[in-house]
Structures are given as C-alpha cells and as structure tokens.
Amino acid sequence: MSNPASGCGAPDQGRDLDGVDVSRETVVQGTVTAAGKPAGGAYVRLLDSSGEFTAEVVASQEGRFRFFARPGTWTVRALAPGASGEAQVTAAAGKANDVSLTLS
User: Fold this and answer.
1) Closest CA to 60 of 39, 82, 81
2) What is the DSSP secondary-structure string of 20-80?
C-alpha cells in the first residue's frame, strides 16, 4: 500500500512486517531521530557498497523506514532540512536488520 499523504509511491513506512515472510527477505529497517524525537518526514536513502544511490523512502511520522534489499553492506543516509545522519549496516538474508540514525 502506497503512502498518499507523502505524495510518495513507497509503502507506508509505519507498517509492521505482518504477512511478510522475513525468512525469504533481506530487510533493512530502523528509525530516524533528531534531538531525541522521531524525525518523521526525513528522506532516507539506501546506498550500495560503492556509494551508489539505490532507493529512497520518506520516514513515517514515527521516524520509521524500511527497505527490502539484497544481502551485503549498505549505507543508510537520512536527510532533513539542515541536518543529516548516516550509518552502515551489513544486512543478512532472512532477518530484519535494524539501523538507528540520529540527525545532527
């Protein structure tokens, strides 16, 4: 289900993984915060191991985001007006790989 409120065709980032067979997926998900509060509306980008842009979603109002990717090393970058945050994750297949990003 897309998120019409954001104008984005990406699925609603606040949804849980009910109905998704995580054992068959590689999920990179997490939260974006700023000053200790959820950073809803931040743009979250997924970059491959060479730094190439792969995908982008808008964080939910709770600051949550999710990507379905292939196993490997990824950079997750969050952007908001005047702030950014970045983290690397080595995503394994068959599980939800969690990332926490703090904007500064």
Assistant:
1) 39
2) --GGG-EEEEEEEEETTEE-TT-EEEEE-TTS-EEEEEEPPTTSEEEEEE-SEEEEEEEEE
Token look-up 């950073």 returns 39
Sequence-separated (6 or more) residues with CB below 8 Å from residue 87:
75, 76, 99, 100, 101
Band the pLDDT of 80: cuts 50, 70, 90: very high
Query: Percentage of the chain with pLDDT > 70?
Result: 86
- Tell me the residue length of the chain: 104
The reported pTM is 0.83
d(CA 81, CA 43): 10
> How many angstroms separate the CA atoms of 99 and 68, rounded?
13
Q: Which distant-in-sequence residues (6+ apart) come within 8 Å of 22 by Cβ?
A: 94, 95, 96
CB-CB contact of 86 with 76 (8 Å): yes
Which class is domain 2-13+24-97? Answer: mainly beta
